[in-house]
């Protein structure tokens, strides 16, 4: 019988092993996060107002926890991924970290809880299980979501009011973070504008933040009828139901926040054509707010930007490199562009005809 070798694992082999184990188990991060949001752990700790003991936390969850030892394991993992602080004593207590306090408590202005609820939903995650089918191809250029469900996310939202509401809430929530970064880091982009059309502007979250900072701009939010019907305009923000593939209303500028990343290059060119028709060729401009995947590989958000491209592969659309953005804009007939970096996943790209 061969003897078992006692040889130690070379350093690079251990690194390789760690890399693969970490990737296999990295799904844990997203799903533990979703679990904690569902159990409302961050909200319960926030409501308590100070570090909370395990029995108090277990009792204060909306669905009281009957298995505190399992809750403790979950909290230990949340601490490992730096979303919870745990005191290191015999009877530990738990508190929020700056990240969970800002982004995971539902009442926080920057909360991403609804975004997590919709995009880590079982039906959405099913698309991730079909990435291989999506890569192999087949009919058309559909997303994995389309291959699994037979329709696009927007198509499904149009006929399912519950999904539509959840989707729009998730979008509005994450839009608050983007919009705040836009008016803080790219204010020059909006200076001097009198009218702007926010194409695919959803429930008007971005429009309202811009309007508050620039009260001189009148903003028209264009979105599909099922999104804007019933929304009431006020304070210089108006809603119009329409289809950006058919017509975009006129304005000094056309704003596209997280729109082109939902579409293939060919569809994006159709949208850009309608945007071009809506602005003055001499003085008008296009303002795109979307991810540039390859900008600053050392940036804190670089991994999230690259991973977003895979999320778009699953749910529909694509993120683009700077070269791809420049080429798309040139093909659409925009001859000049300027990129402004803001403190968000997305960048602000201005383009002129
Ligand atoms: C990813 S969301 C972005 C929403 C918003 N701009 C934001 O950043 O929060 C895409 C938006 O495009 C809208 N949309 C999809 N197809 C559209 C169409 N054909 N015409 C107008 N809006 C459309 C959707 O309803 C949705 O509100």
From TrEMBL:
The active site is at 261 (proton acceptor). SUPFAM superfamilies: S-adenosyl-L-methionine-dependent methyltransferases, Winged helix' DNA-binding domain. The keyword Transmembrane does not apply. Keywords: Methyltransferase, S-adenosyl-L-methionine, Transferase. The keyword S-adenosyl-L-methionine applies. InterPro entries: COMT-like, COMT_C, COMT_dimerisation, SAM-dependent_MTases_sf, WH-like_DNA-bd_sf, WH_DNA-bd_sf. GO terms for biological process: methylation. It comes from the Eukaryota. Residues 21-105 form the O-methyltransferase dimerisation domain. Pfam families: Dimerisation (PF08100), Methyltransf_2 (PF00891). GO terms for molecular function: O-methyltransferase activity; protein dimerization activity. Residues 131-334 form the O-methyltransferase C-terminal domain. This is (RS)-norcoclaurine 6-O-methyltransferase. It comes from Dendrobium catenatum.
């Amino acid at each position: 019988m061969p003897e078992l070798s006692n040889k130690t694992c070379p350093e690079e082999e251990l690194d390789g092993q760690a890399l693969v184990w970490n990737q296999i188990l990295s799904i844990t991060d997203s799903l533990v996060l979703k679990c904690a949001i569902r159990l409302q752990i961050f909200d319960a700790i926030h409501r308590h107002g100070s570090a909370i003991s395990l029995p108090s936390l277990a009792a204060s969850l909306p669905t009281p926890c009957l298995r505190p030892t399992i809750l403790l394991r979950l909290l230990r993992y949340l601490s490992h991924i730096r979303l919870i602080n745990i005191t290191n004593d015999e009877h530990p207590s738990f508190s929020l970290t700056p990240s969970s306090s800002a982004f995971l408590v539902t009442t926080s202005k920057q909360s991403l809880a609804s975004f997590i609820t919709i995009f880590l939903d079982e039906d959405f995650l099913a698309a991730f299980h079909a990435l291989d089918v999506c890569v192999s191809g087949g009919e058309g250029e559909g997303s994995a979501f389309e291959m699994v469900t037979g329709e696009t996310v927007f198509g499904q939202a149009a006929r399912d009011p519950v999904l539509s509401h959840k989707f729009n809430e998730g979008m509005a929530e994450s839009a608050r973070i983007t919009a705040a970064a836009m008016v803080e880091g790219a204010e020059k982009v909006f200076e001097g504008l009198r009218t702007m059309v926010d194409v695919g502007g959803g429930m008007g979250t971005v429009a309202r933040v811009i309007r508050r900072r620039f009260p001189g701009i009148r903003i028209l939010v264009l979105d599909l009828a099922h999104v804007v019907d019933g929304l009431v305009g006020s304070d210089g923000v108006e809603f119009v139901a329409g289809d950006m593939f058919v017509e975009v209303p006129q304005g000094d500028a056309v704003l596209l926040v997280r729109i082109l990343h939902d579409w293939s290059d060919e569809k994006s060119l159709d949208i850009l054509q309608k945007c071009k028709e809506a602005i003055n060729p001499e003085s008008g401009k296009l303002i795109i707010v979307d991810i540039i995947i390859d900008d600053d590989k050392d940036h804190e958000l670089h991994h999230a930007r690259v991973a977003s491209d895979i999320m778009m592969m699953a749910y529909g659309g694509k993120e683009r490199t700077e070269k791809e953005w420049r080429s798309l804009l040139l093909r659409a007939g925009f001859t000049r562009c300027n990129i402004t970096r803001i403190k968000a996943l997305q960048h602000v790209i201005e383009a002129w005809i």
